[in-house]
Amino acid sequence: MKKILVIAFFVLTAGCSSVPITGRKQLSLIPDSQITQMSLQSYNELINQSEIAKTGEQAELVKKVGKEITEAAEAFLRENGLESEISNYSWEFNLIKEDKTVNAFCMPGGKIAVYTGILPVTKNADGLAVVIGHEVAHAIAKHGNERMSQALVAQFGGNVLSAIAAQKSEQTQQLIMLAYGAGTQLGVLLPYSRKHEYEADRIGLILMARAGYNPNAAVIFWQDMSAGSSGQTSDFFSTHPSDSKRIENLKNLIPEAMRYYKK
Fold it and tell me: Can you list the alpha helix ranges (DSSP code H) found in the chain?
């Protein structure tokens, strides 16, 4: 019992960090370097198995919007004394040619993939900035680390530290990848909590505004997604639930984001 209490104390103290912009305290048990290393292998496998649009207007737009939003994110981190966090990210942007897949994701370390199927919904650079800003927000907020940490505690209980130390544990690696929910090759996607979604919405709006994109595009994008205007079944909803309450929340967040917007 005493050993379990000591472990619990460690989890609740040493394993606590804060989310940039919102300042919310979160559980964070896994070193960033370990999560990045484990997820990078899965990301590279997905990219190698996919048809990547390396040139063309759409591919260039994904890279341009991604570059500007990540620069805005890094500028925010510098301004708020979090410059050391920047080294945790090596941003990369890929457009995957899958017109029937309405999705996008950002892996640990800043590996971002956008599927061509979501472009008819984004319509333009502002709409694309909504998607990429939201995904970058999940990354810098370390939502994957948080939900993976929660999954480890639920899975291993008092032995959570031993599980983390066992870096070669296949079960631990599967939990890490499941926690990020990126890549349909995993078979099962673990949705972000509504708290994470709302938090990524808020951070994403501020990042896109700082990068020069109009935050009002977020409401239009999610309304179109909710209405299924693309004519395809959206995989985006498997990890990014949308409803009228979320859209209403976005409308309430826009005034804050507009303070950072310069066209």
Answer: 2-13, 32-49, 57-79, 119-122, 125-140, 143-156, 160-165, 170-180, 194-210, 217-227, 236-239, 244-258
84, 45, 151, 80 alpha-carbon torsion, rounded to 10°: 20
Nearest to 88, CA basis, from 44, 172, 151, 145: 145
**Residue tagged 């983390």 (tokens):** 164
Tokens 């800043």, residue located: 110
Residues across the chain: 263
Q: Give residue-wise pLDDT tens across range 94-149.
A: 999 999 999 998 887 889 999 999 999 999 999 999 999 999 998 888 877 767 76
> Which of 150, 141, 194 has its CA nearest to residue 12?
150
Helix (H) / strand (E) containing 111: strand 111-115
Task: Read off the pLDDT of residues 178-201 as tens digits, 9 standing for 90 and up.
Answer: 544 443 333 333 455 777 788 899
In degrees rounded to 5, what are phi and psi of residue 92? -150, 140
The DSSP-derived string for 224-251 is HHHHTTTSS--THHHHS---HHHHHHHH
Q: How far is CA 201 from the centre of its chain?
A: 10
pTM of the shown model: 0.76
Provide the 8-state DSSP code for 216. Answer: T
Residues 31 and 45: their CA atoms lie apart, in Å, by: 22
